[in-house]
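Progress report, Aim 2. The chain analyzed during this reporting quarter is listed below.
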Amino acid sequence: MRAFIAIALPKEIKDELARLQEKLKSAGADVKWVMPENIHLTLKFLGEIDDKEADQIIRIIGETSQHHDGFIIRINSLGVFPKPDFPRVIWAGVDLGDKQAKNVAAELEEKIAPAGTAKQKKEFSSHITIGRIRSPINRGKLIQELNNLAGYFQTKNLQFKAAKITLFKSTLTPKGPVYEVQKEASLKAS
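Predicted C-alpha cells for the chain:
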C-alpha cells in the first residue's frame, strides 16, 4: 500500500485552509489543490510498503508516540517551495509546535530507516501543503495573490493540539487521492 505518517488536522482548521484556497483560486493559476478533507501535516512519506513493513511501522509509531507529549500547533504563515519567484508547492507554515513536530519526525526517520524506507534527503520542515502548481499558467497572478495574502494568518488564531500520530493509506484515484486511517497512536498526555 502507498502510505505516509502524519498529524491529522481538526475540521475547523481544514475549513479555514479551504477558505484560504478559495481566495488563492481567484488568480486562475494551474494548481492542483489539496482536497480540504485530505489536508494534514506530513511527518514521513513512506511510499509503497508491504504488510510486513506496515506492521513494523505501526510498532514504531506506537513506540515513538510514548516518547513525546501532545503539543500545540499554530499555523502562522503562508509560503511556497522552492522559491517565491518560482513556486511549485503552496503551504501553510507552523511556528508554535515546529520544534516538537521536528523531534517526532526525526525519531520516526531514524527508526523507520532500518525497516527499509529510505531516509529523506531534505531536512524536515513543519508545513501543511495546500496546493501544487502544475504549470506556469497565471503564475504571476498567483504570486501576486500570495503576496497580498502574506499576513492572512496574523488575524486568526489557528491552533490545535496534536494528540496523535497517524499512519494513512493513500489510494490514488482519478478524482484525487483517498486517505484512510490505518493506525493511530496517542502522544503522551501533557
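The domain at 2-186 is CATH 3.90.1140.10 (Cyclic Phosphodiesterase; Chain: A,). Helices lie at 11-25, 51-65, 98-112, 139-148. These observations will guide the mutagenesis work planned for the next reporting period.
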